[in-house]
Amino acid sequence: MKSSRMILCFFLVAISVAGLAQQYKITNRISFPGESGWDYLFADSAARILYVTHSDRVEVIDLDSQKAIGSITGLNRVHGVAVAADLNRGFISDGGANVVVVFDTKSRAELQRVKAGSNPDGIIYDAPSKRVFAFNGSSQDATVIDASTGNIAGSIPMGGKPEFPVSDGKGNVFVNVEDKSEILKIDPKAMRVLQHWSVAPCEEPSGLAMDTAHNRLFSVCSNQKMVVVDADSGKVVATVPIGKGPDAVVFDDEKHVAYSSNGQDGTITVIKQESADKYSVVETVATEKSARTVALDNKTHNLYLSAAQLGAAPAATADNPHPRPKIVAGSFKVLVVSTQ
Fold first, then answer.
1. How many other CB atoms are found less than 10 A from the CB of residue 259?
2. Whole-model pTM?
3. Contact call for residues 219 and 229 (beta carbons, < 8 A)
4. Could you tell me the sign of the dihedral formed by the alpha carbons of 108, 34, 320, 221, in that order?
């Protein structure tokens, strides 16, 4: 009897694990022409719009039909998009032109261009302060913009290369600093850095997400780790293994799951939140190599990732010692990953 019970338990566990391993799959591929690069995606779940950065433009996708419905053009080298839904305004960080492009979210018409620092990258709208924060990778600072007027409110030195930011909606903004392996806590109204927190054992943090209910930050790192940080104390409370080459992470508040997009090995690491300080990997989903950034539609729980086929990298130069591989023409797409 004891042996039979053990066999039965093993069988049930095997079925459970097998079920978990098949929860997510690619359900659609939305293709775009061209051979240009990309960076972040932004899902406006309330408005049912997905913004996809694509070199000199932002592609616009209807989240319900999963079809392209337009684009915002005339840009240079775009990185990110932020939306102030209460103001019907959107903001694009154009790293090639060193500006933040303001657009109307209804018509998608350009409204103005605001001078930023050098290479604005991660960008976020903080609703309590009604300010937009564009984090400039090369000048290592943040340009603060009044979202209502487009006027520059100030600049905040970062002391290192900022990557992706988040707002807790309660009066704090957080950002990864890649070359310092830190998270900075920022007062958006006073426009000053409050805390510098080490995220060791994380190295070179890039993507950042937040569970505002438990006040936990999720930072994905180049050494195949995701660290969970207490946003009050700055303490690292958990470390979770992830795939290679992550550049983004999202957190699903309803499902209590974090997703790390790993471009180097073409996977998503699915991480279950068991409690505020306890996490476990429940699945590794195959996507495509190069799919390093991700957005979450909070309504459908679908994940969206930009990807393309990569060719050979050009020869290294003094100005560009680590050139990126060329993109195969016509291969750029947005992957849709859904639960079965």
1. 27
2. 0.92
3. yes
4. positive
pLDDT digits (tens, 9 = 90+) for 267-293: 999 999 999 999 999 999 999 999 999
Residue 3 buriedness (CB in 10 A; 0-12 / 13-18 / 19+): exposed
Stretches where the chain sits below pLDDT 50 are 1, 7-21
Residues 331, 221, 49, 283: is their CA dihedral positive or negative?
Answer: positive
The SS3 of residue 39 is coil
Per-residue pLDDT of 302-323, as tens digits, reads 999 999 998 887 888 877 777 7
Q: Which pLDDT does position 18 carry in this prediction?
A: 43
Q: Give the chain's length.
A: 340
Are the beta carbons of 324 and 336 closer than 8 angstroms? no
Q: What are the residues facing 257 on neighbouring strands?
A: 252, 272
Contact 91, 102 (CB under 8 A): yes
Which backbone phi and psi does 20 adopt, to 5 degrees? -60, -35
Alpha-helical regions (H) of the chain: 2-20
